[in-house]
């Protein structure tokens, strides 16, 4: 008596799992809050981009520091932290000084990158976003002038601990290094050259400069375009 052939078992094809789409991380920007912002602020501080006290709140001071690292990295300057800016943060991008070891303490203003750097013996110790001369012409009292920030080696020669109501606008706590050209506070520090010739920094930054004596009289100031 022969046995009946056993039925060949059938197997169902294994279903391919549907990949889970991970939403890209949300950009950090003005108004963002929380641990991610706190980590950002601490990283900026570690890299020398001044942004005040880390408090987990993305405000104007943090935005200025983000603009500074974006300028140093040569990427888009929008003051928000997206993938490219995060990559620069992760890579530890920092600007380099033009002065060399043995040059002592000075401030460097890089017109091309629009950065103001505090430098000691060729090493950048702190970096600020700045906005210098727009290189556009303007008219004052019937005369046409070029809004440029001249290059060269200078020294801080005078300062005003208050508001200087200048003919072209207010200068907050200015430190003059080349005639009427100064590092001064302003409520508007965009990611591009926009001043009449001065090196603008945020009001919070100029307050920090005064409070920590970062730019005393006779400090060397080097201004260059490349």
3D structure, described in words:
- This protein has 226 residues and is an alpha+beta fold.
- It has four helices and twelve strands.
- It has two domains: 35-91, PGBD-like superfamily/PGBD (Muramoyl-pentapeptide Carboxypeptidase, domain 1, Orthogonal Bundle); 105-224, L,D-transpeptidase catalytic domain-like.
- It has helices spanning 35-46, 60-73, 83-91, 203-211; strands spanning 105-110, 115-120, 123-129, 137-140, 143-146, 152-155, 158-159, 163-166, 169-178, 181-186, 199-202, 220-224.
- The strands form three sheets. A five-stranded mixed sheet has the order 3-2-1-12-6. Strands 7, 8, 9, 10 and 11 form a five-stranded mixed sheet that branches.
- The model is unreliable at 1-12 (pLDDT under 50).
- A hairpin with a 2-residue loop joins strand 2 (115-120) and strand 3.
- Keywords: Cell shape, Cell wall biogenesis/degradation, Peptidoglycan synthesis, Transferase.
Distance between the termini: 98 Å
From the alpha carbons, calculate the radius of gyration and give it in angstroms: 26 Å
CATH arch. level architecture of the largest domain: Beta Barrel
**Helix residue percentage:** 10-25%
Which of globular, elongated, flat, extended, rod-shaped describes the shape? globular
Strand content: 25-35%
Oligomer: single chain
What do we call the CATH homologous superfamily of the largest domain?
L,D-transpeptidase catalytic domain-like
Order of helices and strands: HHHEEEEEEEEEEEHE
Can you count the beta strands? Answer: 12
**Tally of helical runs:** 4
